[in-house]
Amino acid sequence: MMTETNVRQPVAPVADLDFLRVFLPYELRLAQRQAMVSSSKSADGAPESCLGIYLVRLEPMSGDWFPTAGDGGRQIGSHIQQLLANVIRDSDIPVRLSDQEHLAILRDLDPQHTYAVSQRFLTSASDSDLLRAANLRTRVGYVIYPLSSQPNYPPSQWENIIELTRRMSAYGEPSGRATGYGLVRGPDMAETGIPESDLIPLAIRDPEALVAPGLLQIQRIHLLSQME
To answer: What is the pTM of this model?
Structure first.
């Protein structure tokens, strides 16, 4: 069993699934309104700010065993929250879905900075002695919302967007102790104009199919650290 020695606990409140049910639909509506206003002012139709939704998932390096809460799972979950607290802002929302899965909701995010958040987090996770001792890999999947130039996805279906982040966290072949993939707008999204109500279900099924026509882009995270 792992001990709690020298493990820092998150100082900021951590949300749970009940909070997310109330909070996320509101944030999706707000992001839709902001995107419609800012897109009309920009030359390329891209919004100046977005909502970043990041899912952190832990998986064993080999086998399928993940420690129970009493065997260290609770400590590992708290450690992930501390790593998140070190890279997100005070205005962002950390969410603990379970000891094995976590979310970070980043509000009013600069679309150009979405990659850096995952990069900094995965670098710290790859260097973590605790995750190394537990023989766990960290995988991040993120989605920049809204993805479409027509943001009409029903906020009541927010769980599908979380599922899309989970899909991205499992995308590609894992490498080393930390790996991540993100889904962002493609260069031809504004011209194509496919609405979110069509785009997001397609992306959940097969994100790669939307990359070739330029609707979406898939970003692979490259770590700052050489340790894996």
So the answer is: 0.89
